[in-house]
Design brief:
Elements lengths: L2 H17 L12 H5 L25 H23 L7 H11 L7 H9 L6 H4 L3 H14 L2 H12 L5 H19 L2 H15 L11 H23 L10 H9 L8 H13 L5 E6 L2 E8 L2 E6 L10
Antiparallel strand pairs: 1-2, 2-3
């Protein structure tokens, strides 16, 4: 490595080190890392990312995902080095995006997350659908390393027959568009801003009779309630016949009144809720699915087939 390249690498190292303190607060309000309070960090010497042979068992699928995420991080860092060498011209938006990725901050959109996964052959649909165990392991690994919403979306789209990167990316973009529709209305923006402020800054003084836990719960609960109301506002008559996830996404973005049955709605609702950082569990009673959302240590029950109030029992 010549002196010029060494100097460029040192400059990028310094840039990344100095930027660590700005994140996650510097991210857009709806970025998954900001909503969940994830801290960035980067290291070129991480034993988790050392090369291993192609996985031979379902449990080994975690390693290709980790390896791919680190490859994408390193590529972003390398592009920043090329810019310092004068070999690239990047605008401010591109610099910001690459700096975030070089710090280990994953993209927030499902389209970009799917793109990183699909860049690795071991994670293509044809490679993980040889057995139920292999697909399940892949979904769990994606949920663990990226997010539960991404793991659920990736697995359910593949189960619905999406076998090519183009198909998967199309519906990942559809999920992003729907999430944008849900979160860009004033009724959702206001509680979301309050939730982001709660995450970013020390909690405000408590009102009389209020505890820190109840204050946090009420702020986050208002976000969940606003998202639920917007989902039903977009499709007031959304309960219909069974559809697989691709058609459910098309129905929600299109003019159809019906969207899907309880299973289809539970999957879609879970992905939207999960993109906001809320953990989701499932309940099946008399063939009807409902959701249990975990908020600040409390359980909130969400019916997917009726626009009834959120419940605590």
């Amino acid at each position: 490595m010549n002196e010029r390249v060494t100097d460029a690498v040192a400059q990028v190292d310094s840039l990344l080190e100095s930027n660590l303190k700005y994140y996650p607060k510097h991210l857009p309000p709806l970025h998954y890392a900001r909503l969940t309070g994830q801290k960035p960090g980067f290291s070129r010497i991480d034993p988790r990312y050392q090369w291993r042979p192609t996985p031979t068992s379902p449990d080994d699928l975690l390693t290709p995902i980790q390896r791919q995420l680190e490859t994408c991080r390193a590529q972003a860092e390398a592009l920043l080095v090329h810019e310092r060498l004068g070999e690239l011209i990047l605008n401010l938006e591109e610099q910001e995006r690459l700096t975030c990725r070089a710090l280990g901050i994953l993209p927030s959109s499902e389209h970009d997350r799917f793109g990183e996964l699909l860049a690795r052959p071991e994670l293509h649909p044809h490679a993980i659908t040889h057995s139920t165990a292999r697909l399940t392991s892949a979904v769990k690994a994606i949920a663990r390393e990226i997010s539960p919403a991404t793991g659920l979306a990736y697995g359910m789209l593949i189960l619905a027959g999406m076998q090519t990167p183009k198909q998967l990316l199309r519906y990942a973009e559809g999920l992003d568009r729907l999430f944008d529709r849900l979160t860009r209305v004033p009724a959702v923006i206001q509680p979301l801003n309050s939730a982001v402020s709660l995450i970013d800054r020390p909690a405000p003084p408590l009102q009389q009779g209020e505890t820190r836990a109840t204050s946090r719960f009420q702020t986050l609960f208002s976000v969940l309630l606003a998202i639920r109301e917007q989902l039903w506002a977009l499709k007031p008559d959304r309960l219909s016949t069974p559809f697989l996830l691709p058609q459910v996404i098309d129905n929600y973005l299109g003019s159809e009144q019906g969207v899907g049955n309880s299973l289809a709605l539970a999957i879609l609702d879970s992905i939207m809720i999960g993109k906001l950082g809320f953990p989701v569990l499932y309940h099946l009673e008399s063939g009807i699915l409902s959701l249990e959302v975990l908020i600040a240590g409390q359980n909130v029950y969400w019916e997917v087939t009726r626009p009834s109030s959120l419940s605590f029992v």
